[in-house]
Predict the structure.
Amino acid sequence: MDFYYKEELIQFLPEKVAFLPKHRMLVIADVHLGKASHFRKEGIMIPLPEISPDFLRLHALITSLEPSKVVFLGDLFHSSLNKEWEDLKNFIQLFPSIHFVLTKGNHDILAPEIMQETSIEVVAELGVGEHLLLTHEPTNEAREEKLTISGHIHPGVLIKSKGRQSFRLPCFYHHKQTLILPAFGQLTGLHLLKKASRAKIYAVFPEEVIPL
Amino acid sequence: MNSFADAWFSNEGWTAHDFQQKTWSAMAKGRSGLLNAPTGYGKTMAIWFGVLHHYYIQRKVKKGKNGRKLHCLWITPLRALSSEIHHATNVVSEDLALDYEIGLRTGDTTTKIRQQQKKKPPQALVTTPESVHILMASKGYTDYFSELEFVIVDEWHELMGSKRGVLIELALSRLKALNPKLKIWGISATIGNLDEAREILLGPSNPGVLIKSAIKKRIQIETLLPDVLERFPWGGHLGVHMAEKVIPIIEQSQSTLLFTNTRSQAEIWYRQLLELMPEWAGAIALHHGSLSNEIRVWVEAALHEGNLKAVICTSSLDLGVDFRPVDAVVQIGSPKGIARFLQRAGRSGHQPGALSKVYFLPTHSLEIMEGASLKHAVKEGMMEKRIPYIRSFDVLLQYLVTLAISEGFKAEETFNEVKSTHCFSSISRDEFNECLLMITKGGRSLGAYDEFHKVVAEEGVFKVTSRRIAHRHLLNIGTIVSDSMMQVKFMSGKYLGTIEEWFISRLKPGDNFWFSGRNLELIKVREMQALVRNSTGKKGAIPSWMGGRLPLSSDLGVALRHSMDMVHQRISKKDSELHFLKPLFEKQKELSVLPEGGTLLMESIQTKYGYHLFVYPFDGKFVHEGMAAVIAYRLSKIKAATFSIATNEYGFELLSDSPIPVEEALELGLFTTEDLLQDIRLGINTTEMARRRFRDIASIAGLVFQGYPGKPIKTRHLQANSALFFSVFEDYDPGNLLLREAYDEVMDFQLESARMVEAFVRISSHAIKLTFPSKLTPFSFPIFAESFRERYSNEDWQTRLGKLKDTLEFK
């Protein structure tokens, strides 16, 4: 699904990420790595493979899209340091030519010196081209006609169809100068959004993204 | 025979019933057993004097031994019933000046009293299944229960058909191990499988006795008929158009209980009655499970004192406690089962020998027939069975952690105890080991998760070492699973009750809704609380609670088919229901034929909505849903098509946009029992059903932490959506026991596959009568009407998504 903001092309992919072909940039929101470990520490079992399947999906995406830059829109880690941190370091090392950036989110509570162990650059926000601004949390104030691309919300939409069937799907949400990406991590829930007037919702189906 | 009973009964001026004598004598011989007697005839005393007798005989023998220990555990399903038993047994101790103390321990008991009960146990403790498990989760429980002689399980028929029954089975397996001479007594209302009930409670190795009272309760059933007969009935009315018919009943009676099947229906009826009789404000009340405990206790007390003319209630008043002033009962809408109907009928005329008077108020014309069926069933003494849960691994996991919290457990020993229960008699060592892996390593398939330490094995003893995990587990014991519930409160803080979150989420501040018989305005939602104020408005949404949908029992189905047969004979005026329905039957005959025993009626009708196929097995809604899906699947094998399905208690409808090849399908064996189970699996989207079932399972097994009822959790980050867990299990551990349990429960309880197979077997011997009416018939119309509310296709999830997408793209 191609989405244009001014002359910037933003592709919404069913893998719940956005791709900016002009900048060869892959944008990913809310991975929440380490959530499984976090659950397990609390005595809640969750039968995920030891290597989080999120890495596999990320790996497949990077190999097929060949981006030069990967931006995580915050909440890369769910909580404090754990095993998945080592996995992430190893993962990043697989792609020495890619520039990884993290726009810091509320769950990213790792100390700066630990973040420095990887090549991930941590920023508060990231401007892209003339018209785009990448941050973790959506902001209400519009800045210089820029489109803010953010995560944090885990947007979802409830689609009702005939006969009481309803489907909860993750979605991309565009309203005025705000674009919110769906959460990438497998262990993330959905926050059902009420559609503001004139907002556009792009629902993520298994094979493609479709505007509603 | 029983000196205590003799003294007490003669003081009261009563003579003991036969069943009481028998029970005392069996208990004196040290036997276990199950007692079946109607309410209001002294069941409690039949057991209680046996307990007292044993205690004082034994004390003579053991004279000199110091240190009092718990002697008797009395388990009931309801707090209200617990207090009642506590009160009644205390009266005996007082009257006879005995030093036999009885304690009460439920969710309401204060910590202080609990500690006292722990330190210096009373001789008997009246409690709930969950509280017994909480006791077993505390250190020193083996000592605490070491001299326990009796466990009494009250209303066992009620507990047996639920997972709380599994809690009891497991607790008993442990208590029996602590004292092999433990005597177990159950008290049960009449159910179709009393012998099985006894065997499950006592265990297969303990024969025990079954004592049945010969007392028959007299019961009089009257169906309230509407003034005019609707020949094309429309289900889903709540019966309020009949409200005027109950006013004289309420007026003539001292106190009337009006039973509805859902809470929303109770709210609507309450409002309707007040609208008709405004002067009754204050004299009638509402009682259902979502109202605050305070309100319910008040209503119950007022009923006892005879201060209320009528109470509109749900199953919340089905059980237990006697309200003597109640002398009339009205059942609004189908009771769906014979046992439930009788239980409710028994709420009136509680005095021994009194007549139980019950009025049946049908909510639409076809339901009138159920009045006739109920009378027939009662006359013939038909009664449903209670189906016990088996292989409930979620409850087992919870139990294992419970034991690990207190004194720890050894695998071999606990395996043998668990395997001795009915629920887990088929558990294999491998399955048990898988349960152990789930609590020690966080799962079996994927090796060790080094961060998982819920339960650890130290020298062969499984223990919980983390205080935090122990604490959370205690809160989780006995979580009664329901949708996320929100508290409804006034700004002042006064608590009114709980309501499902999804209902509130549809309202905006300023909107009105009816709850607890009041019209309320939503002010705001704060965390898990909905703050409201009284409103004077007349309009408002009525909340509907999920889970109000009960299936028709198979026995009532049998009775219903019997009534259908009766229709073909001469209907006398005495059969008031069938006589009243005559014009409807005539119309049905004119347009099609009347269903009759030994045949299956099918109607193929074309309307502007498409091609309908109506089938009438009279087997209840749940069975019909499953059957319809199987039939749709079989039809689509002949010719690819999509059907929408609608069902009611009497039959089901398949609707397609192209002609349905019925005749061809019948020749090929549409109702054959061959490959039936396979067709059930292929035809029904069991994944979706299992996903919903898994919610309860995940929460009982401790995967989803729900917090305590009324105390919303603070640890929101731990609250994972059970649907998420379900997908993860499906993807990465498809053989997981909990996941399999979800599918088994779908087959056993939701689809009632055993009943479904039975229905197919029955039908395969029937002659099929296929008619082609020119328009909808009195029997098909109500199903057709259902389809407007409930319509789903039989395709699987993925293609449904695809189809949904197509319609979206089409726009």
Remarks:
- Chain A touches chain B at residues 37-50, 53, 79, 82-83, 159, 161-165, 167, 186-187, 189, 205-206, 210, 212 (CB under 8 Å).
- DSSP finds four helices and 16 strands in chain A.
- The mean pLDDT of chain A is 85.
- The radius of gyration of chain A is 17 Å.
